[in-house]
Amino acid sequence: MAQNNEKKIVHIHLSSENYKTVMTAGNHEVLSDEPEHMGGTDSGPDPYDYLLMSLGSCSVITVRMYAERKKWPVEDIYMELRHFKDHADDCEDCDDPKARIDKIEKELIVKGDLSGEQINKLLEISKKCPVHKTLLSDVEIHSTVDHRA
């Protein structure tokens, strides 16, 4: 995974088809949409799907890089991720009684002749991918608007 100090730039365009969004990153173009029950046309994954795909792909790439450096016999790597919102039961003093906490479950599935210690190390390494670290860090988002008539 390339890491440098250059700004990553993606372009997002909301089409005239309700919530269908065209997203461009360099030479790559993908679609995002909302499911039909949310008013979309389900022409692509929803934004949370992309969040999970970003985290999952970064995690398995990081695991593969580590296993290759260690020359461990990893045949295949999969990851299954789930996102849901959980009631904030542990938030007794929250201002919002309906507060919910975003939760992501990651399940790493590794195929290969590995010891239990190696498998546990790969799980630990999966948590060190840059996207995982970003999601757990304090992120600042600066928003501006360019109004064109």
Molecular structure report:
The protein has 149 residues and is of the alpha+beta class. It folds into two domains: 37 residues; 84 residues, K homology (KH) domain (GMP Synthetase, Chain A, domain 3, 2-Layer Sandwich), CATH 3.30.300. The protein is built from three helices and five strands. The strands form two sheets. A three-stranded antiparallel beta sheet has the order 1-2-3, with no helix packed on it. A two-stranded antiparallel ribbon has the order 4-5. Strand 2 and strand 3 form a beta hairpin.
Q: What does the secondary structure layout of this molecule look like, with pairings?
A:
Blueprint: E1 11-14, E2 21-25, E3 28-32, H1 47-70, E4 74-87, E5 100-112, H2 116-126, H3 130-136
Antiparallel strand pairs: 1-2, 2-3, 4-5
Keywords:
5 strands; GMP Synthetase, Chain A, domain 3; alpha+beta; two-stranded antiparallel sheet; 28% strand; single chain; 3 helices; three-stranded antiparallel sheet
